[in-house]
Amino acid sequence: MKKFSSEFMIGAATAAHQVEGNNVNSDFWTMEHIPGTMYKEPSLNAVDHYHKYKEDIQLLIDAGLNTYRFSIEWARIEPAKGNFDKNEIDHYRQVLEFCHQNQVTPIVTLHHFSSPKWLISEGGWESESTIEYFGNYSRYVVSKLGHLMPYICTINEANMGKQITKIMKRMTANGSNSANKDNSVDVQVGLNVDMKAKMETYYRALGEAFGIDPRNVQSFLSPRTEKGEIIIMKCHEKARNQIKEVNPSIKVGITFSLYDHQALPGGEPYVEKEQDDDFLNYLPFLEEDDFLGVQNYSRKIHGPDGLVKSDETTRLTKMGYEFYPEALGNVLRFVAKHWDKPIIVTENGISTDNDEERVEFIERALAGVYQCLEEGINVIGYTYWSLLDNFEWQLGYAQTFGLIAVDRSTQTRYPKDSLSFLGNIKNAGLNGLRV
Fold first, then answer.
1. 107 contacts 69 by C-beta, under 8 angstroms
2. Which of 134, 272, 315, 430 could form a disulfide with 2 if both were Cys (CB 3.0 to 4.6 A apart)?
3. Domains and their CATH numbers in the chain
């Protein structure tokens, strides 16, 4: 029987801005509403997880799952610089307490892409001052809630800005102004790479909205300089130090977006470069971390001329990247060669309108995780992305990653078969289920 141990964490993940709704003090809310916005639609009420978190977590519990990864929204906690909102801390305390009351392990992310609007006006993620600001925010949250947070991911997908920068450079080199199928596989989250459309209007509005030169508007998902890369990792180190000062028992880590980079003959140098850019160059900043969050959705194949584009025979997900659940196990093996501490799969999933396809994806992905455990790799948990169909950033609400569908006109929840399937794997194992 291929059964995960009772200690192994299996559950699902969300991010605050994507599910809570009405995150009015955040940079993303601002960018969603400016003239020429590059967002398909605004987040608005999202799926109202802010008010319906008990119902949503209960659905996770009823399916037999034992772990919930979610983010605390900095823009709610500190809506204005230096002004912390006790009511919002109380809200997240209630979420955490509900998890503990129901034997659900919370994995908390302190920053999942969205930031306070004021932070961007102060220079954002290319400013040295953000290191201190993020440290102050982290210390405040942990001083109030740390006893309820066994695991903290400081920053979600710390390498995402670098991946976006690569896409922009490729687009510039190709003279392309529009997203296409080949570009859509580049980023593992819902980012529209049509960055040049309506750019003049958009950037003028950006500058007006944040009160600064539009060239200095640096959200977390803006193309990033090398200086910005260092600032991100210093933010992580600062947060980790603050967390450990307040509560040394908390396990602290960070998450990365990692592809399964595969080489055809002659493609090996490209794979080595991508692996170094995506992960290896960050290792010096992680030496004092307790765990690593691995996030994987697909693979990239590299030949002697670089990235090999998908063709009409490639099975694609709704997001436009290859359906390849085995990528997760391969990435875990790669990471384990360079990381000997615990690993948590903090995101892995598929956008599809066919839930049978999601079931297939989950089983094949978790079969890879189980094989890694048998090989001795120190994986301690898996949280599927995502618990709910949600706001997929610039792509709006059309993408469907969730284990639970939501009718946003009524905010009614409709659990999918894949939710109970994941719970069955947690409790019955992989044998005897779908082959």
1. yes
2. 430
3. 9-428 (3.20.20.80)
